[in-house]
Amino acid sequence: MEKEMVIRSRQHGFTKGKSCLTDLTAFCGGMAGWGEEGRAVGVVCLDLSKAFDTVSHNILTVLQKGSGEEHGVLILFVILTFPRGSFSCSGLHQISQNKVAVLLLAGGQGTRLGVSYPKGMYNVGLPSGKTLYQIQAERIRKVEQLAGQRHHCKCAVPWYIMTSEFTLGPTEEFFVEHNYFNLDRSNVVMFEQRMLPAVTFDGKAILEEKGKIAMAPDGNGGLYRALVDNKILDDMKRRGIQYVHVYCVDNILVKMADPVFIGFCVSKGADCGAKPQCAIQALPSEELGCFAVAASTDTHQDMTFLGLQGKYEPQLRHHVAIKKVPYIDEEGNLVKPLKPNGIKLEKFVFDVFQFSKNFVAFEVLREEEFSPLKNADTADKDTPTTARQALLAQHYRWALRAGATFLDENGCRIPEKLSLSGTEDPPAVCEISPLVSYFGEGLEVHMKNKDFPSPFVLDENKAGILGNS
């Protein structure tokens, strides 16, 4: 074949004296040479765990030349794709051992959303009518079930909820009203963060009513002091918790106690980790930060790291947040400003990352794991509509992958559409209960080669019927 020039010299597979290893070596060498010459070099991703599992990963490094930026060269990155299945197994094992807890940051007010109650109580308009709190509670129940089934045991993931003066009472009442969403009450622990005065732009105190200064939560970075103030660290140690998944209440796609993320952090010996998103659909102007954690506080922190933050927390600086702060005017009337009129001082939960001894980042797809609810529907992004679209688009993709088809009101098949923009409704409306599937797993038995109307809600009852049909 070589004599007849059927295979070119650049072909390494099925060629004597060559292999996948020589192919990679030649490829990387060529790309490095182009970079040194100032030529344009693309970004290449190699799935080494599948295609080149016999290659030593140590020989592959990021090629970074000092002259790259001067010549406008895009540096080549060789990205190792790790087998996530092994991380999931490790994470589920930690959960089965009762070593994992989730910690919800829910002290902020829903002023931008335009509601007076905690965001977790908000219903974004799903067919089921579920609130954020219910969705998150059911994800905890499901991941407990997955870990218990895999390791033949009963386990629990404690849910710590950091509230504030504004959100503690309503949150407690909401959970009691809904019977803690069938979670064990002893495993749901609520506590308050501290409050700080809100001030005008010239530093004067703002009165929210006669004789009372306007106060605001000290930001999600107030977590570390609140853990000590409320003896939450002591409670975690008593339960044997070793790993804590910290997240914000407003992310409708959050994977509670994500076993893949936890397994990854444990395998790397990380004391702290974060989930940056591959922000394919992010707006160009969106400030995602170095690891995208400015938009998402989805982090992993082990107990050793959390315990040290009482020492480091005083070193954190406050950030200025420009807000609309209701106030009492000179006549004693309550005024709700239409534009920002004051400053709230906040600390951020990720400000402590600088103190980590072994920090890791675990990149995830934005459309699968991050869609925040921050603004009313009058805004351009992060609204109830975009949050609902993100969840329903995700569930629609899960259903298609499971082999489902959808029919319109006339019984005609609805054409499939796998690629959806961040502001687009899926062709068919399908909501899947977290109690049926945590992250798209196990749906084939319920949905493969079956037709469903739109809208359709797959809950536990329907799943039981479909599984037996």
UniProtKB/TrEMBL annotation:
Top-level taxon in the UniProt lineage: Eukaryota
Source species taxonomy: Eukaryota, Metazoa, Chordata, Craniata, Vertebrata
UniProt keywords, alphabetically: Nucleotidyltransferase, Transferase
One GO term of the biological process aspect: UDP-N-acetylglucosamine biosynthetic process
Keyword Flavoprotein belongs to the record: no
Coiled-coil regions listed in the entry: none
Record-linked SUPFAM superfamilies: Nucleotide-diphospho-sugar transferases
GO molecular function, one term: UDP-N-acetylglucosamine diphosphorylase activity
Alphabetical list of InterPro entries matching this protein: Nucleotide-diphossugar_trans, UDP-sugar_pyrophosphorylase, UDPGP_fam
Protein name as annotated: UDP-N-acetylhexosamine pyrophosphorylase-like protein 1
